[in-house]
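Postdoc handover notes: sequence design on the structure in folder B. Input tokens:
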């Protein structure tokens, strides 16, 4: 079960101010998220999302289901794989999707959005926020002598009608990590809110907003 802590920022300026609190080597990854759905909308009814993510270096097929986003903690079952052939329907995520929706019909592309992700590897002592520091050697989270090694993912996403700025942290101990990050933001007077909406839902809401705007323009032209 995947657990992500999500912090939302109100604007780009605040986003970069938050990012500056975590100095050190960074990896910038450009992602194009192609959202797929079955024509009968059975996936939507069961709260299942299917995504093809293309980055600078590789592709991923992702199935995410049973999501719960509570007070900034995103909990969901997630299956992700980088197939040798992106059209290979035998990869694990597709097998899981067929188990979840046995009678699934034709799948179609209903749009895409772009995310620029900046990854920062950060080392932090969970007993004291003052001892937190960047660690370039951290690859994955683990606990050693009260120390956490985290990967912070700062996302700038471009939806059809607006931009969205967010920090995501995947962790098995959100109850320990969340207070540390919040304390850093509060000390630096960084305005933020806990994430309450998934990127999938934000994308769908933006598409609907765009549809209404286009409809309004068409009525003006009549």
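Designed sequence:
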């Amino acid at each position: 079960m995947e657990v992500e802590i999500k912090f939302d920022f109100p604007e780009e300026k605040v986003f970069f101010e938050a990012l500056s609190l975590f100095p050190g080597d960074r990896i910038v990854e450009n992602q194009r998220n192609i959202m797929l759905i079955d024509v009968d909308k059975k996936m939507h009814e069961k709260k299942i999302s299917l995504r093809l993510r293309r980055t600078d270096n590789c592709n991923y097929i992702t199935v995410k289901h049973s999501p719960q986003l509570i007070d900034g903690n995103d909990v969901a079952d997630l299956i992700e794989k980088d197939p040798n052939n992106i059209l290979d329907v035998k990869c694990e995520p597709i097998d899981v999707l067929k188990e979840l929706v046995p009678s699934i019909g034709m799948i179609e592309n209903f749009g895409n959005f772009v995310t620029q992700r900046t990854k920062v590897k950060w080392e932090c002592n969970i007993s004291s926020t003052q001892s937190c520091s960047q660690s370039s050697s951290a690859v994955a989270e683990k606990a050693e002598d009260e120390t956490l090694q985290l990967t912070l993912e700062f996302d700038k996403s471009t939806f059809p009608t607006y931009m969205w700025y967010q920090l995501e942290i995947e962790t098995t101990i959100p109850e320990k990590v969340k207070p540390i990050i919040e304390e850093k933001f509060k000390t630096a007077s960084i305005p933020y809110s806990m994430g309450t909406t998934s990127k999938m839902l934000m994308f769908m809401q933006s598409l609907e907003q765009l549809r209404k705007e286009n409809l309004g323009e068409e009525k003006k032209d009549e």
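Context for whoever picks this up: The chain has one domain: 2-221. Don't rerun without checking with the PI first.
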